Amino acid sequence: MKRWIEDGLFRAVMRNAGYLASGKAAGAILGLLALACAGRGLTPALFGTLMIIHTYANGVGALAKFQTWQFIIRSGTPALLRGDTHVARDTVRFSTGLDLTSGLVGMIGAMLLLPVMARWLGLPHAALLPALLYCTLVPTMTAATPTGTLRMLDRFDLIASQQVVTPALRAAGAVLAFLTHAGFGAFVATWYVADLAGDLVLWALAARELRRRDMLSAFRPGLLGVARRLPGAWGFVWTTNVAHSIYAAWGPLSNLVVASALGPAAAGLFKIAATLVDSTTKPADLLSRGFYPEIMRLDPASRDPWRLGLRLGLLSACVGVGLVLLIMLGGAPVIGALFGHRYVAAAGLLQIMAWSVAISTAAFPLESLLYMVGRQKAALAAQACATLAYLPLLDWLTRREGLSGAGYAVLIGTALNACLMLLPTLQSYHARRATDRHAPLGLAA
Domain of life here (predicted)? Predict the structure, then answer.
């Protein structure tokens, strides 16, 4: 470990992850407070309906979203390192235009599909109008340009501060709605305002940093004309869009499948378990956000990015196992204390899903390494195959075994995704060694 800490790359990733952790830790606590107030202030059926409205918009946004932040880091970061601000500006302009276009298309599609999907989702007729209004958030939900801009400019501290905005506003509104017995409409409004405000703050912070560097014109949208000056832009964004749409939609679609199989109340229980599991995977998520920008500054033919990925994967796996043990011991008491005895039934599901934490945290470097060597199509194929197997399995096991079946499906799907991602990563590493005669990869190298 001493040798790891002496590695400047390792320290850089841990520093950036530390910035993000400072915001995520507070955000996770505030998010749980908001959920707890909603769970106690609403009936299980209304709580589930609130989660369906939120996850529907998130799910559509995830499907429509282009991972423009990855494109900005891949093209804009090297351009800035060599002093080419014109290419960096074009990268952000193209990403801005793509975000705006996909966001508007996603919003219109979500509104048109909602009346058709409402019956399948178990959404009450009275909740249809709030759900339609909530779909207007899709354009801001799909925007990844401001995040990519701040990462390109190495302002992880600003991203950390912004991460508190949405959960803080959501928690404040939820507490107020709970104490005043304001009802279902107040909770929907709280979730809406908090999401919108958080997204707008992120855009404002990114604009301020661009202005400081005399690059504010980068937020002027551009699409077809700008793309012609960026070779390979369309191929990269389409591949990563599909791959990350699959990944980002995994959670919302899972909740919707459970809702269709077991109803809104069960969907609420599944959402509680999934939220707690998601909270425990944040350390790996934070490491990933710091890992990808760093390896894009490295030579893929060298040992450095692969060694860094192995070290961070092992470290993250150890943390993941510790988190699983904590969930096993404290899951039921935490759910009972936060949400009330009506939701303790989610504890058994949580214990099953907990093992997916160890798997996903250990595997987090794989996707970034594949993007580094230009094998984003392999990452897409892995995620697509895993999802195509997971969703039917989730529906079948949920209808057969109830919520326990949903938990086992999540565990199997996570393991399958990690295995399918590992295979092309190992192939890429061995291909690198075929042309590079350095010493083999090792922990102490």
Answer: Bacteria
